[in-house]
Amino acid sequence: xxxxxxxxxxxxxxxxxxxxxxxxxxxxxxxxxxxxxxxxxxxxxxxxxxxxxxxxxxxxxxxxxxxxxxxxxxxxxxxxxxxxxxxxxxxxxxxxxxxxxxxxxxxxxxxxxxxxxxxxxxxxxxxxxxxxxxxxxxxxxxxxxxxxxxxxxxxxxxxxxxxxxxxxxxxxxxxxxxxxxxxxxxxxxxxxxxxxxxxxxxxxxxxxxxxxxxxxxxxxxxxxxxxxxxxxxxxxxxxxxxxxxxxxxxxxxxxxxxxxxxxxxxxxxxxxxxxxxxxxxxxxxxxxxxxxxxxxxxxxxxxx
Length: 304
What we know:
mainly alpha; 0% strand
């Protein structure tokens, strides 16, 4: 079975994939007390308003009176912690394989990029998660279909697809690169590797079904940026050297570290959502134990 992480890196340049260049900035920044650009990404996210708002957004269980139950904020912190470890493990292997120590690349850089991207991975999700996305899609459909067909008159097909298929991941990219800290180009001006690793679905919304069906994998299931930010993501992709997936669409392959962001997310919700379900008395202890043992057994097989 092919490994997408290895398949992608075979045609990409790790030095470019980990460039410290920030979106919207042309000058390189000076290091302060060995605080790397990727660590600064993490810190900017922690102190940002959109990240703070995650405390009132649902992970799974809404409006819980139990203060043990996780919110999106807690979930994001947990995913970030797991992501840092995964990134360092992979980074150590890659640095050793390609002898990158002499180029100044460290395993910790991989961990810091994944950690920052994980911290932001749900930053664009509306309240109530996927149900919130459905509500927003329905609201837009009702609006532009009832107000003199404004959707057909004012929106291009690509713009209308953004509304029809409203996606929290694309909203997250918009928040990071435009809505937070305007009017600077690049918004928060995070590094391009962090933004690329954050974007699990590096394509636009309007791509024909027949074209999508020719590609497999989870990265084609959704899209990662709106038309309004398409040029910004194109700049990110060009900066880190992502491979173009289609000549006639804004569509790129994933940054290899995006797979680790997704893995960290999967690891966390496969465990903690079950744990929260038990705390909320939806899942009895016997079934909780069985479900968690399944996850543990899968993890052990992967390690063997």
